[in-house]
């Protein structure tokens, strides 16, 4: 898509008609501020990425991570079993068995 002189002239004319010659400096000033803020934020995002890449790892070895994962799984299984026992105890308390 090539923009020639007639197309650019029409765009400029449309901008003048849309904003008016009195509001045009304010509009261009606010557009410039917005672009500066946007560029600053984009630079900040690049800096964050660079800092994250340069940050040291957590220092946990893979075997220690596996051990922690296994311990977490065992603890979760124990908690699930305890919840099941508590639910059975509540059910027994609500509906006691009559002696035969």
TrEMBL record:
Its main location: membrane. Residues 65-92 form a coiled coil. InterPro entries: TatA/B/E, TatA/E. This is Unannotated protein. One of its GO terms (cellular component) is plasma membrane. It is a single-pass membrane protein. GO terms for biological process: protein transport by the Tat complex. PANTHER family: SEC-INDEPENDENT PROTEIN TRANSLOCASE PROTEIN TATA. It holds the Pfam family TatA_B_E. It is found in: Cell membrane. The lineage of its organism: unclassified sequences, metagenomes, ecological metagenomes. The chain crosses the membrane at residues 6-24. The keyword Amino-acid biosynthesis does not apply. Keywords: Cell membrane, Coiled coil, Membrane, Protein transport, Translocation, Transmembrane, Transmembrane helix, Transport.
